[in-house]
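Task 17 of the worksheet. Students: predict the tertiary structure of the chain below and write it out as structure tokens. Keep your answer in the requested format; marks are given for formatting as well as content.
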Amino acid sequence: MKFQIRSGGTRSWVAILGTASALATGLLLAGSAQAAVVDCDGSIGPLEGSKSPRAFEYDFSCTSPQGNEEAPTKIDAYSIVSTKSVLGFNANALVFDPAGEVVASGEQFGCEGPFPGYGIGCNGAMSLGNTAESDLTLAQNPCSKKGVKTPFNAWVVVAADKIKDDLSHVKQISEPFKLDVAKCPKPVKKPGHKGHKGGRHS
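Model answer:
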């Protein structure tokens, strides 16, 4: 199942990025939000097996500093924000453990987004150290002649949760973490036709 997002007007990527924290904030349950202590990284690139140049898959994982008693224990929401208009996206994100196996213990995310919009928000659960993966479709091929005029960048913002010994929760929102974007393939040069030069032959 995919939610369709209509293409909207051009926006400054700075303004788009500024919505990331707001999207993540809206995903939080009741609780206090604090400066995050998680470190996240990930990537976004062409969707494997798809022939569409607009289909992309993304993944990310998060860790926390050692020895921090207030460090979160899981991710319970995230937002993906893009400089390119998103036409559609997978409504589900799977979670994989460090060995690459799908986590079957209730760790996954359900995603939705605004109409139109340049980002999506996902609720669910993921333990730190695991990896969330899903895919989306852009309104325009970012590697086309028109697409390269505006650089394609994407960020992830997460809402982290720390469960204390007294079962109380501490909610934290991360800063935006920029995803590694796959480089556009170099255009294939077509073989040129070489003509023959010279004068007439008698």
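Marker's comment: Residues 1-36 have pLDDT under 50 and may be disordered. The first strand starts at residue 2 and ends at 4.
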